[in-house]
Amino acid sequence: MNESRIERVLENMQKSGLEQIVVTSTSSVYYLTGIWVEPLERMLALYLNTQGERILFGNYLFGLSPQPGTRLVQHSDSDNPVRDLAQAVRPGKLGIDKMWPSKFLIGLTQLRADVIPVIGSAPVDDARMLKDAQEIAAMRYSSQLNDLAVEAAIASIHEGAAENELAAKVEEFYRVHGADHSSEGQLVCFGANGADPHHSPNATILRQGDSVTFDIFIPFNRYWCDMTRTVFFKTVSDEQRRVYETVKEANLSAIAAVRPGLPLRDFDKAARKVIEDAGYGSYFTHRLGHGAGLDCHEMPDVSSASDVIAAPGMVFSIEPGVYLPGKFGVRIEDLVLVTEDGCEVLNKASKDLRIV
Ligand SMILES: [Mn+2]
User: Fold this and answer.
1) Cα(150)–Cα(195) distance, rounded to whole angstroms?
2) Same domain for 21 and 106?
3) pLDDT band of 245, cuts 50, 70, 90
4) Is the pLDDT at 184 greater than 90, yes or no?
5) What CATH number does residue 54 fall under?
6) What's the mean pLDDT in 254-264?
7) Cα 332 to middle of ligand 1, angstroms
């Protein structure tokens, strides 16, 4: 059990007037307990209340061992695990992890009509947003490897290459360098495919003048890296160059804007203004970025709607893009760490326009 993290979560609960929560996501349970369980359809839950009660619920198959200061309640596949939880919670408001399957939540509300479920992820999410020294070291390490991965990916570009072939090269790099699991879904997009921000690599063959976007991400030691670079194959058109330099300037402007005390929406605005001024505003179709840590996408949200105030220890992506349907797309993404007086860019791979 990580006592200092639990302490912080309990403080966050007190501040928000939430006396009891159920933590269920794999990454959040790991954050607080050091135990990594992927429960799939089975139930994993850590119950916490501000009176100091802690109960860990799990299937025998999870192999959970007793934890200090924590009651362990295990169940088998033929038990109803929700019944155990229903017996433990107190009447009134109960904070529920936002991703908890509805089959459990509805079961709980049917057994306990005196419980009022509310979304209760904020106390843990707010703690997770502020990385401690050990987590920052892990994030730096992961991004250092990703810098090497993207260089290897760019070096693997060749005449006749297919998107899914280059994606497999990235996956192989991660495997050889000790990623936590095999990676699927690395994004490699050629030319017009790059105009879809989430295009899945397929058998498309590279052609001269294509943009090539690599958006690559994986956890090392549980902590995710996530970065994007766009290069051009053999030639670059005036329009591609203009879009590339615009997106690069947007990335750099947002990074220059990051400092503690400002709302995250200001960083989105800094990037968006550059792209709007260049006339491409309507082609930047997503938020500027997202938090990263034990999950590839976690809090905070870095969008025009984000009221979260930047604070030292936050790690999030800065990933402006311009997507021209039928033509090409450009995205440049770095992870940044908010520091006392600005930010540290965790990704060091060059952002100069590259023709390979
Ligand atoms: Mn990202």
Assistant:
1) 20
2) yes
3) very high
4) no
5) 3.40.350.10
6) 98
7) 10
Q: How far is the CA of 289 from the centre of ligand 1 (A)?
A: 6
Question: pLDDT-based confidence at 182, cuts 50/70/90?
Answer: confident
- Angstrom distance (rounded) from CA 305 to CA 290: 12
Is the same domain home to 135 and 80? no
Q: Find the CATH number of the domain harbouring 336.
A: 3.90.230.10
Ligand 1 centroid vs 328 CA: distance in angstroms?
A: 19
321 CA distance to ligand 1 middle (Å): 11
User: How would you write 249-314 as a 3-class SS string?
Assistant: HHHHHHHHHCCCCCECHHHHHHHHHHHHHCCCHHHCCCCCEEECCCCCCEEEEECCCCCCECCCCC
- Residue 257 CA, chain-centre distance (Å), reads 21
Q: Residue with structure tokens 């119950």?
A: 47
Residue 80 CA to ligand 1 center (angstroms) comes to 38
pTM metric for this prediction: 0.96
The fraction of the chain above a pLDDT of 90, given in percent, is: 99
Residues with CB under 5 A from ligand 1 (ion): 226, 317
End-of-domain residue from the set 112, 128, 144: 128
Rg (the chain; Cα; Å): 22
What range defines the domain where residue 221 resides? 130-345
On the question of pLDDT at 200 being above 90, the answer is: yes
44 inside domain: yes
Domain identity same for 118 and 154: no
